Amino acid sequence: MFQIRFASIATLSAACVAAPLWAADLATPTGEVLLTVSGAISVTNGGETARFDRAMLEQLGAVTIETETIWTEGEQTFTGVPLSRLMDAVAGTGDSLNATAINDYTVAIPREDWVDDGPIVAYLNNGEPMSVRGKGPLWIVYPYDTHPEYQSEVIYSRSIWQLDRIVVEN
Q: Coiled-coil annotation: which residues (predicted)?
């Protein structure tokens, strides 16, 4: 599993300046665009946005979490890209995200949630792609069972499904 870790603030600053390294890795989507990221980002592939199809999200490195949710029955397996890794890929520098669903429902997700073992942008549930009716195609899922602090109304409200765009804000 590929994971980016920064050793220091200096390294982080250098990594942000070295955006062409990421830009070379952020191809143009060839499939249906599932997610558009804009705002305080420096790596793009479509004007001022970073657009991702499912294959591009998969290439960022998948993780799988097993957890129960308040919206499903029994333990579920979710596979997706960590939100922190997505923000690294677009060189997101903001303090929060405005995550918006296809029905224009929007939630704010603070930078404190962009941690390695935090939420993922899930594209599979129990090994299957999620339909719009099944809360897909993308759903921000937190590892509720392994982190009791994620079992709160605030976190549940940030667990947006049918996600299709993110704006990184300062």
A: none
Q: Token digits for 43?
A: 């790596």
The mean predicted confidence, pLDDT, of the chain is 87
The two counts, helices (H) then strands (E), for the chain are 5, 10
Side chain identity, residue 27: A
Taking alpha carbons only, the member of 131, 37, 17 closest to residue 81 is 37
DSSP 46: B
Beta strands in 117-162 (DSSP E): 120-125, 128-129, 139-141
Q: What is the CATH number of the domain that holds 20?
A: 3.90.420.10
Tokens found for residue 112:
């404190």
44-56: average pLDDT: 94
Single pTM value for the model? 0.84
